[in-house]
Amino acid sequence: MNLRQLKIFLTVCESGSMSKAAKKLYMTQPSISQTISELEQELNVKLFERMSKKLLLTYAGEVLKEYAKRISSLVEEAQSTLLDISNLKAGKLRIGASTTVGNKDKYPSPLFNEFLSYLKEFPSQF
Amino acid sequence: MNLRQLKIFLTVCESGSMSKAAKKLYMTQPSISQTISELEQELNVKLFERMSKKLLLTYAGEVLKEYAKRISSLVEEAQSTLLDISNLKAGKLRIGASTTVGNKDKYPSPLFNEFLSYLKEFPSQF
DNA sequence: GCTCGTTACGTTGATCGTAAGTATC
DNA sequence: GATACTTACGATCAACGTAACGAGC
């Protein structure tokens, strides 16, 4: 199980079909199908009931979907926060001189203040 | 960023060195080093301060470590729950006949009861 | 016959190990 | 010289695309 598989699985869940998910992800439909099959084999459960023209989530599929949403959400938050840190590092000099830096992002990280105090204490870390 | 990188990163954090992490993960030390470098490049931050004989987490490293722990924890919970479902599927007949099935795992999934009711309603799904 | 999913197969890229290099103690 | 990390390079496996196939409308 990896993040790539979870992302593909989630996209299939949300779009309701593998072909639509393929378009969203700029992949081919066979690759999507193969990835879902891999997931099912690895977890030893059937994730979708293959109906004609419709995919129906099994119970295992529903459970995985909820986990996948929470996991993806955490991963995105992590990446966003690390990106903030990376950007702040690049704009380090400006931080000390400007009071508007806190407004430059729509979603300031909750770790922002913590970071600033850390920066003051250990400037050599950056 | 993927789960493999996070697992390796976490192991390095916990063991305090790349060579120890390599032993824990049954990998070679250069592979660990390479993976950490990849992570740092992808995220555009330095994760460790390379001291002599000691690795010190940077602020970015501390942040990633906390996220990595939460993400890994969720992933493990997901796998454990799906494994439960997989096992229950295999032991489907026994479920109906036995009252001890709920004790067979140390950590019964919180979704267990939900699953049982689902199983009764849609037995054909399994 | 069109749409959707699966299976088969070849190519490319990621992942890992081995070997060699650098630095600190 | 022993230990720990890095760099370089080659081999293996995973991931993806193309092509061909099967099923349902």
From TrEMBL, chains A, B:
Superkingdom to which the source organism belongs: Bacteria
Record-annotated HTH lysR-type domain positions: 1-58
Key word DNA-binding present: yes
InterPro entries for the chain: LysR_HTH_N, WH-like_DNA-bd_sf, WH_DNA-bd_sf
Record keywords, A-Z: DNA-binding, Transcription, Transcription regulation
SUPFAM superfamilies listed in its UniProt record: Winged helix' DNA-binding domain
Gene Ontology MF, one: transcription cis-regulatory region binding
Protein family according to the UniProt entry: Belongs to the LysR transcriptional regulatory family.
UniProt-recorded name of the protein: Transcriptional regulator
